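Example 3.2
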Amino acid sequence: MVYLYALVFSFTVVILLVPLVRSIALRIGFVDRPTKRKIHDAPIPLSGGVAIFAGVIATSFVFMGHPALFRTLLIGGSSLVLVGLVDDGYKSRGLDFPVWPRLIAYIAVSLVPVWQGIGIQGVSSPSSSAMILFSPVVSAAVTLIWVFALINMLNFIDGIDGLASGVTAISSMTLFAASLIFNHNQTALVAVALAGSCLAFLAYNFHPARIFMGDAGATFLGFTLAVTAIDGTLKGATLLSLSVPLLALGVPILDTAIVFSRRLFEGKGLHRADNLHTHHSLMKWGLTQVQTVSFLYLIAAVFSLLSIVVLLVLR
């Protein structure tokens, strides 16, 4: 029952907070202005990430207190939100925030879970209880790569109304189910808090969007999903536990793989923004925004259901 309360609490926090942060953003001109690369044709407030962050953090603290998982989300999440707000501030003025400060910040934040004792500690065979433990350096490196990758992957797919928040809601409910199966109550609570926050935000962000989450929100979503996956299924990874987050996060992972492959093939920089993402391709083929998002929701749901089926069958 506590998970239902947490879901409702996070949903309520965000649904009430979004109009406030949207009003402030409009008042100060903190908006995403249309460009040739973007598909919206009017300025849209960029402050939604603040509301999502508040919903997840407030819910986690109220229902969980302040264990290592909460401290990780608070320290890493607040850092990403601050960097994201600076980046979004540049965008609102028609400027590009330099890449290297962002990358350095993302790398530093990716080590916060390690600092708090949350990491991928080793691998074991599904047919044996024996585990090959990673050295502290290898564990930190593997954890950093996973968290850094998810931070950027969620940021990459945040290019169309409702996509990042909807896919995150689906993925987080999958991680919630997996955490319950593995008896990881804290990660289950964070996952359901993230789902409630994203569902509430989706009420304002689905096409036509009245607010964007901005880089502040997208990077926080990626970070929270990454940490939740580690704490819930990846601490001591088997083939079984590894399959759950990979499938649950299948849409952003596949999108990133496709985009990076195309950029390499065309000789473009991997960090350069472009229109090569899956949602851009679907719209070029004639789908509307709603049809594109709905199709990708369906794909995300199929991946998520498959991950749970694999978990139940092989467990």
